[in-house]
């Protein structure tokens, strides 16, 4: 089985749009403000939790 585009990571890396200013959405893990608008629907993480989550789910290969 061959993957022609070389993309072996199955994790969705889509990011919500960054907010221009307050109000900011709360991080779903620690409740700190994120970089994303409060109106964004979906999972939002602060920069620290986002980095930690990326470390936990990093693709190895």
Written account of the structure:
- The protein is of the alpha+beta class and about 60 residues long.
- It is about 15% helix and about 15% strand.
- A hairpin with a 6-residue loop joins strand 1 and strand 2.
- It is elongated and about 35 Å long.
User: How many strands in all?
Assistant: 2
Which structural class best describes the helix and strand composition? alpha+beta
SSE order: EEH
Low-confidence stretches: none
Helix content: 10-25%
Read across the widest sheet, the strand sequence of neighbours is 1-2
What's the helix count?
Answer: 1
Largest sheet: 2 strands, antiparallel
Mean pLDDT: 77
The geometry reads as: elongated
Proportion of beta-strand residues: 5-15%
Q: N- to C-terminal separation?
A: 16 Å
Radius of gyration: 14 Å
Highlighted features:
61 residues, two-stranded antiparallel sheet, 16% helix, 13% strand, elongated
């Amino acid at each position: 089985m061959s993957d022609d585009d070389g993309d072996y990571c199955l994790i969705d890396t889509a990011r919500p749009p960054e907010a221009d200013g307050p109000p900011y959405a709360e991080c779903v893990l620690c409740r700190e403000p994120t970089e994303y608008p409060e109106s964004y629907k979906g999972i939002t993480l602060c920069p620290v939790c986002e980095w930690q989550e990326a470390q936990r789910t990093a693709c190895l290969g």
